[in-house]
Amino acid sequence: MSDLTINVEFSGGMELLFNNVRQHKITLPAKSPLDNSKPAQLRDLIFYIRDNMMTEKKDLFVEKDTVRPGILVLINNVDWELCDELDYELEDKDEIVFISTLHGG
Amino acid sequence: MANNNFCCKCKTGQATIRIRHAFYCHDCFLFAVVGKYRTILGKSRSMNRAKGKVLLACSGGPSSISMLHMTKEFMHVEPYAKKKIQVLDSALVCHIDESALFEAQNGSTQKMKEMVEKEFPNMDFLSSSMQDIFLKDFTKDADLDTVLKGMDGSSDYDYLVKPIKQESTLNSETDRIDRLRELFNGINKNTAKEDLYWHIKMTMLVTLAKKEGCSYIFMGDTATRQAIKMISMTGKGRGYSIPFDIGVENDITFPGLTILRPMKDMLSKEIGLYNRFKDLEKYVIPPTDFNTGKPAKSSIERLTEEFITTLDRDFPSTVSTISRTASKLTPLNDMDLSKKCAICNMPYQAGIEDWRRRITVTNVKDKSPDAIPNEEKKKLDDSMIDMNEYLCYSCQVDMKDYKNDTVSRLPPYSVKAILDEYLINDNDEE
């Protein structure tokens, strides 16, 4: 069972929640920790980030079981709304971008 | 991971983005977004009448940066495109530095200056710091030695002050920064802080625009921001001036100056994606204000933002529906534009105080409800001024959250506006 390498980028102010670091390389197991028979999904990545990379203000990234409204997610430059959103099955070397669009202007 | 959607415009490219209920491919999306900007400029009454210098209000946030980029594209005309007239002669990027209030914004001016020099070389750059509001430059015929001191005896409806002479001690930049911080720290609620912050910013932009000979100010408010402001301003009692505060074109409140909001048809999602695809993200200075990182209930605007962004996620037409309603708002025909609020510079309705007395439930006193409030005032010390007479309703409400000595720290332009109006009224009565 191999691991997946996911390139994650934060922008639009989100990087402030992660020590001002925009680019991150994350290694995730290929199977979802919630259900070993299923491949890892985007929601697993989001929970991983919340539980391992954030020390405070978790509610500025994750609300209930999904990203906070106002945060855009791009999967390999495609709007996640076109790719099953949280159910998207991650593949090795995927590029996921989180862009915050709050307080614009 | 089925993505069988085709772009709704070109019908051939595979869709990569969903905006509201429509699917677009990259190129069509970018084309549509820029098209919205051009449409607004093309439809503008004032722009069609007269050209003029444009001041681009740029906070460094994502919408301002997109606006700069689109403006740059608009100023550039292909030699073979005979139909396109170069509408904008010259543009000036204006940044108001707020690092005195928000440490996270330190270095914003330098960053913006470098960006303009590199990416927008045919635009000038001007910056001013928020604490400069205490300088003579922002108050015509300034008398920086007079401040207003809050007096006891105010009822629920008036705010009594007395002008006193105070040696102007704001001699250095540090003094002015301290004064600015004291002013904001002396306001209890975030809602009132945000309002004052915004009014000071607008005043500075208008003053700078006039000083630099600009006839237009472009502001980067998006449709999302407009929807949020529409609801939050109604909640704060600013309904009278909403058409001016959020309308796409305002050439009424500041004679000689037109305020345009070319981004008002774009959702914040479109702006976020535009900046990403045009590689502008590196220039975006994450916006910080009193609500950044705070829970939803910290202010009316923050709560409204939470409400609208959450609703819009599940019902993507939310923002556009509110925006459409907002654009139908027009100012009243018989608006009295000669009276302007001393803090926010917007027109206010006459008779606010009487209205407040009529609708408010307070302690029942032994007076008949028909007692004329003015008779009480004549008994007061003649040198006291009721500030509320020169403020609009929402600024009056904000004043209730000011601590006792905060009013003495109000910027000079407000103090002068109040005193000038008072003297005019005083002369009338004699």
What does it look like?
The complex is a heterodimer of chains A (105) and B (430). Chain A has 105 residues and is mostly beta strands. A five-stranded mixed sheet of chain A has the order 2-1-9-7-8, with no helix packed on it. A two-stranded antiparallel sheet of chain A has the order 3-4. The longest helix of chain A is centred in the middle third of the chain and has 11 residues, at 42-52. Chain A has one helix and nine strands. Helix content of chain A is 10%, strand content 38%. Chain B has a six-stranded mixed sheet, with helices on both faces. In chain B, strands 6-7-11 form a three-stranded antiparallel sheet, covered by helices on one side. A two-stranded antiparallel ribbon of chain B has the order 1-2. Chain B has 15 helices and eleven strands. Chain B folds into two domains: 1-40; 44-429, Rossmann fold (3-Layer(aba) Sandwich). The longest helix of chain B has 22 residues, at 190-211. Chain B is globular. The A-B interface holds A 11-13, 15-16, 57, 60, 69-70, 72, 74, 77-79, 81-84, 88-89, 97, 99-105 and B 1-3, 5, 15-18, 23, 26, 59, 61-64, 104, 219-222, 224-225, 263, 268-269, 271-273, 275-276, 281, 284, 286-289, 291-293, 305-306, 309-310, 312-313.
Largest sheet entry of chain A: 5 strands, mixed
Protein chain pair with the most extensive contact, residues per chain = A-B, 28 and 45 residues
Biggest sheet of chain A: strands side by side, in what order?
2-1-9-7-8
Instruction: Count structural domains of chain B.
Output: 2
Cross-link (Glycyl lysine isopeptide (Gly-Lys) (interchain with K-? in acceptor proteins)) (chain A): 105
GO biological process, one term (chain A): tRNA thio-modification
InterPro entries (chain A): Beta-grasp_dom_sf (IPR012675), Mopterin_synth/thiamin_S_b (IPR016155), Urm1 (IPR015221)
Subcellular location (chain A): Cytoplasm
